[in-house]
Design goal:
The protein is mostly helical. The protein has five helices and no strands. Helix 1 crosses helix 2, helix 3 crosses helix 4 and helix 4 packs across helix 5.
């Protein structure tokens, strides 16, 4: 499943910005960059959610666009693009660590916090003299 399209990039960053970068790249580069962003996102989601997602949560296209734009800009990446990319990856790490949950996504069985390990200790074998 695709999290973002070329049209999503254009809507977020403007046609001029995307077309300018696209003209300097080989044909199909934007689609490959978007596929790479999807693969990166899936890598973070794979341990927590069943893939492919049946419904794309509304915040994933924004994350995919930030990752793709950073890759699209390459060496010409602005500080804003770097920060957006960094924030997107940090958010994905939070999803992988189960600090953030995706809306309408199906969790992988056993990945939820309900799968807790509980430990108990046995009574002391040795005691100090004079203590009960």
């Amino acid at each position: 499943m695709t999290y973002a399209t070329r049209d999503d990039l254009v809507q977020r960053y403007g046609a001029d910005d995307i077309e300018q970068r696209e003209s300097a790249l080989p044909a199909g580069a934007v689609d490959r960059i978007l596929a790479d962003a999807d693969a990166l996102i899936d890598g973070y989601l794979a341990g927590r959610y069943s893939l492919p997602l049946t419904d794309v949560p509304p915040n994933l296209p924004q994350v995919a666009c930030a990752i793709a734009r950073y890759a699209l800009l390459g060496d010409a990446a602005t500080e804003r693009a770097r920060e957006d990319h960094k924030d997107a990856v940090a958010w994905l790490r939070d999803v992988a660590a189960d600090k953030v949950k995706l809306q309408s996504a199906t969790p992988v069985p056993g990945a939820a916090p309900e799968s807790m390990v509980m430990m108990t200790t046995s009574p002391s074998v040795f005691k100090r003299a004079g203590r009960p």
